[in-house]
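User: C-alpha cells for this complex, please. No commentary.
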Amino acid sequence: MVTAFFNLVGRDLRLALRGGIGSLVAMVFFVIAATLFPLGVGPESALLERIAPGVLWVCALLATMLSLGRMFQDDYDDGSLEVIALGPLPLEMVVLAKILAHWLTTGLPLIIAAPALAILLNMSMQGFAVLIISLLLGTPILSLIGSVGAALTVGLKRDGVLISLLVLPLYVPVLIFAVGAVEGAIFGLGAQANLLILAGGFLFFLVLTPWASAAALRMALE
Amino acid sequence: MSDGEKRFEAENVACIRGERPVFSGLSFSLATGGGLILRGPNGSGKSSLLRILAGFLKPVGGNLGWNDVDPQEAPEIHRARTHYVGHMEAIKPTLTVNEHLAFWARAKGFKRPADNILQALDLDPLADVPGRFLSAGQKRRLSLTRLLATPADLWLLDEPSVTLDVQSTARLEDMLAAHRASGGMAIVATHAEIALPGAEVIDMAGYRIAIDTLLGAPQKAAGGPTAAGEPDYGEW
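Assistant:
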C-alpha cells in the first residue's frame, strides 16, 4: 500500500516536471498578480506595507484555485483513474496522494516565491516568518478543500467557474485567519491564536476531505 | 494466480443507468479457466455489465458471487483479482511505455511488472517511446499489456480488439488462451470476432428491459428469451 501511495505521488510529480511551464501555472499567476498591485495602487510604500499580507494571501488563494481543475480531470479523462481505483489503495488514500502531489506542485512553489514578493510589496520584516508559517499551514488546507471541488466536478467539461463557486466560500476562513496571523505579527498582537486555528483547520480537513472527495470520485466512476 | 477451484457467478443482475433501465435478469456462472463473451447492439449494457463486475457500478438487483462471497463484501480482494481494460487506454503523453508498465504494476501493489511482457504484443521496439508518439493501435496494445504486467484471476475486457490489426488480435487471443489455461477467467465484450474456445456467449439484447414491461403493458421485445412463445400483440 505504501508502494502504491508513493508510486502515485511520484508519477504525478514526474508528469508535472515533464509538463513544462504548464505545471507552474499557479506560481506564475501568483507572481504576476502580486507584482501588478504596486503598479495598480501606486508605489506609496506605506500603503503597500499595509496591504501586503492581504494581497499575498488573496493571490495565493486565486493561484491555487486556478490549478484545481486538473487535480483529477486528466486521470479521469484518459482512464487512469479506473486503473488506479482497481489497485489495493483505497480511494481515500488515492485522493490523499493526489492532494500531496498537488500541494508539492502548487502550494510549495507559492511558498518559495512568497518572500521575494513580500519584499516587493514592502511587507514589514516582522511578518516574514509568520507569513511562511501561515502559508505552510494554509496552502495544504487549500489543496484539501479544493480536492472536494475538483472531485465533484470531475465529469464536467469547462468546470472552472463551478469549482470556484464551490470552493471559494470554504477558502474564506483560511484567508481571514492567515492574514490575521501575519498582521498580528506585524502589529505586535501575536500570531499564535490565528496559527493554531489554521493548524486545527488543517487537521480537520485532512481527516474530512479525503472521504468526501473519494465519495465524489466513486460517483464519477460509475 | 491463486490456486484452487474458482467460481464467479451472477444471478439475476439488473442495471439502471441514469434512470434508464438497461438490462435485468442476467445470470451466468464461470468456473476456473472459464470464458464469457458479451454481445449485443450499442447501448445494450455490455460496458455497464463489465463495470458492475469490476465493482465501479452497483447492480440495482441480483447477486454476484466469487466462490459464494459477494465481491461487495470484500471489495479490496475483488479489486486485487480483477483487471479491467475499458475503452480508455490510460496512457499519458509524457510517460514512456516502460514507465507506464512500472506505474501500473506498482499501482496494483507489485514492486515491478513481470519480465519480458512487451514481446507478447510486439511492443519491445517501443519500450522507451513516450505515449504521445504511439499510434492508436499501439496505445491499445500497451493498454492490453497491463493484463500481463501483474497477475489477476479475472480479466474484464471492453472491446479489446478495437483498432488492433489481425496479427495483434491473434496475439490477444493467445494471451487469453494462456490466461485461461493457467486457471484465469476472461469476460470479453466485443462486436468483432475474438476466438475464446468453449466460452459461453451472452446476447445482451435478450435481457433488455422494455419500457412497456415496466409500465405493465405486454412485452414485445424481439429476440429476448421471454419473448419466445408470447402471443403476438401486433402494433398498437
